[in-house]
Amino acid sequence: MWWVYAPISTYLCDFASKGTIRDVKTNFCEHILNLPMKYHDSTAKGELISAVTNDTACLELIYDWSFFQVLHSAVGGIGGIAVMAAMDWRFAIIVILIGSISVFTASYFSKKLEKVGTALQDRLAKTSTDAYELVKAAKTIRVLNLYEVKTKNFNEVTKLEADLKLKSGKILSKMNAISAAISSISYIAILFIGALFIYFKLSDWGTIIALIGLKDATDMLFLECGQHMAGMQTNVAGVKRLFQITNTPKEKILREMSYAINKINNPVVVKDVSFSYDTGAAVLDKFNMNIENNKLTAVVGESGCGKSTLMKLMLGLYEPEAGSIIFNGSEKTTLKNIRSKTSYVPQDAMLFRGSVYDNIAFGNESAAKEEIINAAKLAGAHKFICNLENGYDTMLLDDGKSLSGGQKQRIAIARALAKNAEILLLDEITSSLDKDTEEQVLGTVKNISKTKAVMFITHRKDVIKWAERVVEMK
Q1: C-alpha R_g of the chain
Q2: Does the predicted TM-score (pTM) go above 0.90?
Q3: Which of 24, 275, 390, 447 could covalently link to 394 via disulfide, CB atoms 3.0 to 4.6 Å apart?
Q4: Residue 275: DSSP 8-state
Q5: DSSP readout, 323-372?
Q6: 162-194, pLDDT tens digit by residue?
């Protein structure tokens, strides 16, 4: 019945394995999205990409292959030892003692392989970071004529990666060669010990031949099992990196003393807020301001004065060290409730792979088509969207590269408006636009502020002419 059992068991194992790895990857990506903003700000994107690709692949190799090989060898070897012990426990003890040499050998090489594996996974993460930079900055590299420099640097990085892989291969080769030599010597030793057993009439030829015949089974425990465990150490290093990320605590629940939702006159009030990063220097020190309904509030200041930090605090991405941020309403103080009150447009508009319609609808996936189109109209995006090849169904390239900067910003504004939040937060959204496009976008923002509370942060004082209220940060 093996021809029936084998394919069924293989399918069931693959079904369980692939499903488990799928769940692991899904949960891991979800965990990354819920990590504190501090973690994302201090970790290279390439490292996280490497974790999602290389490190999860290490876990998959262990789960799909190495684990079963170790388990198969261990079960087979223990079974052989058990049969040998039942036939002659004295001979079994001697075989175990000789076999322990192989175990110590594998253990010695395992430590070396784990060390190389850790270095290799770190190097793969750096390679991913460099590759991400090459792809993202391809245009800049060409303009600055950095092609030869960057390709040379990347070649050096990949050479270091190849050297580590070669080093791992050399260690495995040495281990396998020494293990094979130990196996051959142990076979001769067992033959000699068997002869001594017969000579001193401790056993007979039939028993000794049967016991020697079980050596292949015992090798599964002492030789194969050790080799498989040692060989998986390079993948274990990747799994450890994976666990380092999964063990990083998720974004904390906001403290009641830092954030609150109360009945107040303004949509949001910032009261005596202080904050500093790890450098220790205070970015905000007892800062106060409020945003009023149906007005455009401009927050102006030089780079580094804390404008973007203020916005991150209002979005709950960071938490004030002192003071509080109070939102108008009657809901409970939770991250979800606080973020439901704000819509955000960053300096570099991030668009996702998919249609124009989908990108706007991401702001509110339950919104009707009419609401999405109205949001686009209010953002000044409807006209150019209709002129695209497939209108709202036009598929965007990565990060909307097929659109101009102004078009991307308008879609990002439309997405924020589709969310229909009380407060619209805009972070230097015109800094990379030309004068005419800037005027058009600011005109759109001014029009939006007639029905919403809008906060616009900028380092350019000529923009404040559009605002009813100006808060200057120093």
Answers
A1: 32
A2: no
A3: 390
A4: E
A5: EEEEEESSS---HHHHHHTEEEE-SS----SEEHHHHHHTT-TT--HHHH
A6: 899 899 889 888 888 888 888 888 888 888 888
